[in-house]
Amino acid sequence: MAVTGSVVAVLWNWLFNYWFEMWEFAQASKHRTVLRRVMHALGFEMPLLLLFVILFAWWFDISYTQAFAMDIAMTVFFLFGTFVFTWIFDLLFDQPKLNNE
Description:
This protein is an all-alpha fold. It has one domain (2-93). It has helices at residues 2-26, 34-60, 64-93.
């Protein structure tokens, strides 16, 4: 499950960040506010939460409620981790530039 979860998270990270930066590039304001960072973190983590609840329930042959309980601590940890990581990334490297800029 750890390998499967890692592969899913890495692939989703690549896809989501590509899509988010495309959306962000189309916005009038390019400034990354706290609200935008919260949207980024939630947008990244919520689909993973849903997918991992389904995977945990299937993998461990448990109910969705039990799988949700297993997943919630991991999700909260990574939700805050995503928020802090992107904030530090922005402070160090500024907003990523798209190829067509």
